[in-house]
Amino acid sequence: MAAIHFEFDVSTGSKTSFDLELDGVKDLTALKHTISYNYGVVQPEGLSFHSSDTPLNELADIKASKGKIGIKVDGHALREIPGPSGLPMVGNYFEVFPDHLGNNQRFFDKYGAIFKTNNMGKIVAQTNDPELAQICFSESEFFSKEIVPDHPLYPIKNQKAGVFLGDTDNPDWKVVHKFLPPALGPKAVRHYAPQMNSCCEESFPVFDEMEKADQAWNVYQYMLKLSSGTVGKIMLGKDLKHFTSVDAPLDRIVLAIAEVLAINKKIASRGEWYSHLPFGDPLRLKNLQQFMTDQIQEAINEANSSGTEDLQLQEAALKAANVVDYLVRATDGNGNRLPKENLVSATIVATGAGFTTTSSLLSWCLYGLVTYPGTQARILQELIDKDITDETSITADQIDELDELGKFVKEMQRRHNPSYQPGRTAQRDMILPGGYQVKKGTVVIPALHHIHNNPAIWENPARFDPDRWDTEQVKQRHKAAYIPFATGQRMCIGFNFALLEVKIFLCKLVYRYHWEKEGDMETEYDPFFQLIRPVNLYVKTQKRERWPSKTTQEGTDTNGSGQDTRES
């Protein structure tokens, strides 16, 4: 049989045509897979064939057809990823910043599920489609975490760190990924719960003092103190002394890591040329990176140890004095330890990622407490019903039983997730679902905020509604429709740690205090930080003197006289 001429329909970009002999092709599915393999079609099932305007739904129809066979992908002709044209030199920079969340939403509204922008030479695509996001996160022949110059993390790329800042195909990632996740896994994290309780309780005298002075305070600044102080103890075995007084300064390690994330965002958003300047932000970034290395090395040298013997990898976190002690002493099945050349970089990443995410998430959770009516009352009532008091050292098992708290945190992460730009890099030329053509080396960002607030996925996404998590619609959602810590091999390895820490802190803070927002100013986020954090949220606390009584099985208060009647 003579070869048949196929040609992809094209709306933008160059044509792709080829001749193919069908003698060895047994059915339509095999034909789709053959074409997909050779031309990088990510989902073969999306291919359809036609002759002129006549659909060809069987292999026999294709063989019998005369002339060119057209190909569509999910009913679409091939197309380039759309996006705004931009200005000379600066590209779309002033169309994106400073309000990148709002402006990117405008681009999604205009261009659809995926678009690309050029910020001073850095070209990235973003998607709010969970199907495309899942493809990006898959670590496959199509996409991988490869931190190329257009990637948002490129200015702080560090292969020795392995996790977060390294490429998947680099040997260091496999080495570090073997040792670090067990220290942050479910079993280890449950072991850290008592320290999380005590760290939160250390903040109470400071919050009490500010309440007595009728003083409002910036939420993010104190949540940064609280979360970094906790990470300092658990990771480094170091007391950062953040709550010795109201005005106790942040530890220098914390300040350096926070500044690095701010500078990295600025450099990454201004193009490759900016990173090569021998002064200003690029020079400051290099100096801070060296300072962090020196400080973490000093902390490693000073970290307490519970012994000197080797610890088996899966049990080491339960026996080590802190995560640094674990990383120094843990051994795999062959007796190998984490190489010294990876130790400092991996510790920097674990420490920095450990508190920057939780401080931002905690801040947004407090925003939720003071913004959405009834939220405090629901969480407080659940604590009462589960016999949690001011004296309770809250365990992971107790946290697992707090459904109202769990729904609240999920809904806050859906509406106000700190992480928003986990980029992945195309490993080959490909055709995405919808017919979008992607060139090798293209960085695609699954835009978490926009996925979580996509009206095509979520009913009334702007409405804060924790009860949506009880609905079948949400339970049956696409598995990449809610991915606050990304997904796949390169998802955040510390999500168990972050969630337990945040939930324990919220239990303690809600049980002890009633929270009120100070002022009527709309809360704004910082557009030039690596994570989404509120910058102008101020609150006041009022220490509780009365608590509600337990509810009966019918859901009514057993003793109305004990109810805290303030709006919560």
UniProtKB/TrEMBL annotation:
Q: Which GO terms describe its molecular function?
A: heme binding; iron ion binding; monooxygenase activity; oxidoreductase activity, acting on paired donors, with incorporation or reduction of molecular oxygen
* Keywords on record: Heme, Iron, Metal-binding
What are its cofactors? heme
* InterPro entries according to UniProt: Cyt_P450 (IPR001128), Cyt_P450_E_grp-I (IPR002401), Cyt_P450_sf (IPR036396), Cytochrome_P450_monoxygenase (IPR050121)
Protein residues bound to heme: 492
Q: Could you tell me which residues belong to the region Disordered?
A: 544-568
- Domain of life of the source: Eukaryota
List, alphabetically, the SUPFAM superfamilies matched.
Cytochrome P450
Pfam families named among the record's database cross-references: p450
Compositionally biased region (Polar residues): 549-568
Stated name of the protein: Cytochrome P450 monooxygenase
Q: Which organism is it from?
A: Exophiala oligosperma
